[in-house]
Amino acid sequence: MDRTVKISVTAGDVDIDLDGSTAEIEEMLALLRQDDTWGLMIDRLKVAKKAALKATIAAAKASGLPKRGSAFNTLVESCSLKRKPDQVLGAIHYLREVEGVMDSPPRVINQLFEDAGMEPPGNLSLYLNRLRERNFLIIPSANEDKNRFAILSEEGRTHLNKRSVK
Question: In whole angstroms, what is the distance from residue 105 CA to residue 116 CA?
């Protein structure tokens, strides 16, 4: 016995309202994908997501949330990042995931440390290369092997998560 299924999605001027058996819904979705209705819906949802993210960031800034230095310092303290390589890993995580910065030359990372009232790492390339050797950082192939585009690998995320549990 096939149960009745209902799918209803509205994004802007695109409205999808389906109901029927699972097989019927799958068939209707296949038709929607063929005539680009589904693609339009996905595009509208992406636009709405970006707008919501921008509005959230603007509201957060307007509400007086902590400055970047204190927020990064809180990350370092809450994750018990005592060693400089771990702090550099935390800085890259903070810049990518919290601030959405995808290009962070040494001056950006050093400024983050200074904003937090911490001593900057100094020879940042040394730390970044060692973190890459430990497979904590990866550089997407499109970025010409430049450290400034490094992102945390799964091992790097796991390493930071282990620190925060202690």
Answer: 17
